[in-house]
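dumping this here so i dont lose it
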């Protein structure tokens, strides 16, 4: 909370490390108050976020799938993977990399 208060209001928080590094409650408060401009999150707390979590609908927030890959693997596969996910989203189909907590991933 204190760190968000020290940031300029045009700051965009990026978390690609660990979900608990950022308090989701404090992040939401900072967004709502205008203390920060946005967030890009590869990890969240909790993970996965519940379907009805307000971060999903916030236009100032980008949430990416929590995946770890080597740079070469990402370069080879990320574009095609992103296009596949976007196409499924656009047509209302099941997202191919949807998180399944019961399966453990």
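and the seq i came up w/
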């Amino acid at each position: 909370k204190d760190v968000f208060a020290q940031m300029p209001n045009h700051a965009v928080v990026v978390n690609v490390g660990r979900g608990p590094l950022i308090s989701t409650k404090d992040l939401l408060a900072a967004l709502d108050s205008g203390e920060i401009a946005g967030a890009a999150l590869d990890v969240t707390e909790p993970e996965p976020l519940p379907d009805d979590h307000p971060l999903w609908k916030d236009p100032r927030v980008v949430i990416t799938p929590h995946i770890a890959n080597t740079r070469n693997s990402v370069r080879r596969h990320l574009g095609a993977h992103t296009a596949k996910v976007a196409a499924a989203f656009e047509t209302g189909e099941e997202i191919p990399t949807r998180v399944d907590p019961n399966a453990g991933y």
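The helical segments are 2-6, 24-33, 54-57, 71-91.
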